[in-house]
């Protein structure tokens, strides 16, 4: 009976009339959203399955019908990283089934790659600015975004950063113009001043003094791009959103990163080869030697992560034991910022002899299953007043002399298979000459020579002869930018170096498909967490049967002319 028919035969109170209308509205609301049909469906399905957890079954059913989570707010705070320095931690809050929840967080510190150094005051300013950006700008801008839409989130972050960067650059330009107008221009920094490097003859004399030789003009260093305080907000928010999406999907971060790549991996996932720093004899060591910033262990493709870590730990213990003997006159033994043994030596041969002896004592196959990479970090060794590299305290080498020095070391120590940053990126002629000298016996890798220019600036050609580049997740780089940068590197092998932050860098390396992962030495809790994460991913993929064989690449060819291991070990000794 309709309400009108019911009202005509009896008196209805106002309260009953309102209740009747409310029931009709509720019924219409539920019908329009298909609630009765869905409830009937789940009750029928549950009756036949008879689950032990009835309400858990209902919760799972209806959760699949709920709206996608959206970002409600992003918060940030200042924390301390593994070095005891300040870092930025970001938390992403989402509306999930009508409730606000904190889903995931990420941490990023300041530069810890040697490419840029900043004082505590500058780092504090950068962190404070980043937190202000997150609180006042980025959180409102990203409110309502689906965290699984990484590209849209990163575009917002990228556009915001570029607007702030251009404002900052315009401000710096105005300051320079004001200085010029007041005629208070300071002298140009020595890095930007072309310097004449005298060419010595074989007897060590200065040919320029004879009056019949030409002096080579040292290419000036590129002017560094201005670093924008607060840029950390871009990278840490992008990373936190990616981790949030992975958490909501119930998948590891590396799988989510893989899904963001344009070209999907096939035939299983490939783990990057870990590169372990075992020795540091750079500028921060107590000895005269500056050239060997890092001596890095490069294992073969066939070794598991657990085997590589165990081998690295044994090797470091053996090197310490050898150093405690009387054969080496080394300075105090310490631990570098990279987590490796830090020893002061006078000459590079002493450091390489130590590694060779320790490997021989442990019967490690140095030169066959194991190779060495030397991080020269030459961009920090140039003495611009002399136009030469200070490879050892008081010992300077011109770029051409350094080519000969590298050639001699590689001939004497054939286990050296890679040189990282043997020159500044501006010494193009020497890069090319060194590549010609070493041929296929050694690879040239660019770190600072690749990373000093911002990723969003006009692409500049790499120095000639480079076969590998080291990527870094910089503070102004979104996850999408990092994936794109790695994917576009077609002419060189890709490597990813860990920065200061959580273990997410390992998932980024696995998901982005790089060939090598540079994590540093085997000391320090934060660094060992990264090694443990890589080991856990390897075990997980192995148990699932998704661990694909590592692909051969130019940096893994241990022997000259790309000989196979079997061919190499069967060569008879004379």
What is the structure about, briefly put?
With about 575 residues, the chain is α/β, with parallel strands linked by helices. About 40% of the residues lie in helices and about 20% in strands.
Going by helix content, strand content and strand pairing, the class is alpha/beta
- Provide mean pLDDT, rounded: 82
Main sheet specs: 8 strands, mixed, barrel
Low-confidence stretches: 199-214, 558-574
Task: Compute the number of helices.
Answer: 17
Strand order of the main beta sheet, please? 6-7-10-14-15-16-17-18
Considering DSSP H and I runs of 4 or more, what fraction of the residues is helical?
Answer: 40-55%
Per the principal axes of the C-alpha atoms, what is the gross shape? elongated
Our Rg estimate from Cα atoms comes to 30 Å
What is the number of E strands?
Answer: 18
End-to-end Cα distance: 110 Å
* Strand-residue proportion: 15-25%
Q: How would you portray this structure in words?
A:
With 574 residues, the chain is an alpha/beta fold. It has 17 helices and 18 strands. The strands form four sheets. The chain has an eight-stranded mixed barrel with strand order 6-7-10-14-15-16-17-18, surrounded by six helices. A three-stranded antiparallel sheet has the order 1-2-3, with helices on one face. Strand 8 (334-335) and strand 9 (341-342) form a beta hairpin. Helix 6 (150-181) runs antiparallel to helix 7 (232-249) and helix 8 runs parallel beside helix 15 (504-512). The longest helix is centred in the N-terminal third of the chain and has 32 residues, at 150-181. Mean pLDDT is 82; it is low at 199-214 and 558-574.
């Amino acid at each position: 009976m309709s309400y009108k028919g019911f009202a005509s035969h009896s008196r209805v109170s106002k309260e009953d009339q309102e209740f009747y209308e409310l029931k009709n509205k509720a019924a219409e609301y539920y019908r329009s959203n298909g609630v009765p049909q869905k409830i009937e469906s789940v009750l029928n399905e549950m009756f036949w399955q008879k689950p032990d957890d009835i309400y858990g079954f209902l919760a799972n059913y209806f959760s699949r019908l709920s709206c996608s989570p959206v970002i409600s707010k992003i918060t940030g705070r200042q924390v301390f990283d593994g070095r005891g320095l300040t870092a930025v931690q970001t938390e992403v809050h989402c509306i999930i089934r009508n409730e606000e929840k904190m889903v995931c967080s990420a941490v990023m510190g300041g530069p810890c790659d040697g490419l840029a150094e900043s004082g505590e005051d500058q780092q504090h300013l950068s962190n404070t600015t980043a937190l202000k950006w997150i609180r006042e700008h980025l959180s409102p801008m990203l409110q309502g975004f689906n965290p699984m839409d990484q590209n849209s989130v990163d575009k917002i972050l990228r556009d915001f950063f570029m607007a702030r960067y251009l404002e900052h650059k315009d401000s710096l330009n105005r300051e320079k113009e004001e200085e010029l107008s007041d005629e208070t221009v300071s002298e140009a920094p020595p890095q930007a001043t072309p310097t004449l490097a005298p060419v010595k003859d074989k007897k060590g004399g200065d040919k320029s003094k004879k009056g019949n030789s030409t002096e080579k003009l040292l290419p000036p260093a590129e002017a560094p791009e201005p670093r924008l305080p607060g840029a950390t907000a871009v990278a840490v928010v992008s990373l936190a959103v990616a981790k949030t999406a992975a958490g909501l999907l119930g998948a590891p971060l590396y799988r989510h990163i893989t899904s963001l790549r344009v070209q999907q991996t096939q035939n299983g996932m490939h783990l990057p080869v870990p590169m372990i720093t075992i020795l540091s004899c750079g500028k921060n060591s107590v000895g005269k030697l500056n050239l060997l910033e890092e001596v890095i262990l490069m294992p073969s493709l066939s070794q598991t992560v657990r085997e590589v870590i165990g081998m690295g730990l044994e090797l470091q213990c053996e090197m310490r034991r050898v150093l405690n003997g009387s054969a080496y006159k080394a300075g105090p033994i310490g631990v570098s910022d990279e987590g490796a043994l830090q020893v002061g030596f006078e000459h590079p041969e002493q450091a390489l002899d130590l590694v060779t002896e320790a490997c021989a004592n442990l019967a490690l196959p140095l030169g066959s299953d194991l190779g060495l990479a030397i991080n020269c970090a030459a961009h920090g060794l140039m003495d611009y007043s002399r136009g030469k590299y200070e490879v050892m305290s008081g010992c300077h080498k011109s770029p051409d002399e350094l080519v000969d020095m590298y050639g001699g070391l590689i001939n004497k120590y054939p286990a050296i298979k890679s040189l990282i940053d043997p020159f500044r990126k501006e010494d193009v002629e020497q890069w090319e000459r060194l590549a010609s000298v070493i041929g296929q016996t050694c690879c040239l890798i660019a770190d600072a020579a690749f990373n000093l220019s911002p990723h969003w600036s006009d692409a500049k050609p790499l120095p000639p002869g480079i076969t590998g580049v080291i990527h870094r997740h910089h503070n102004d780089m979104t996850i999408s930018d990092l994936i794109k940068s790695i994917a576009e590197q077609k002419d060189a092998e890709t490597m990813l170096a860990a920065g200061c932050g959580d273990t997410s860098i390992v998932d980024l390396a696995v998901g982005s498909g790089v060939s090598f992962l540079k994590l540093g030495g085997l000391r320090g809790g934060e660094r060992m967490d990264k090694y443990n994460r890589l080991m856990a991913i390897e075990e997980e993929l192995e148990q699932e049967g998704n661990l694909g064989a590592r692909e051969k690449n130019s940096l893994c060819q241990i022997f000259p002319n790309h000989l196979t291991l079997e061919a190499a070990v069967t060569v008879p000794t004379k």
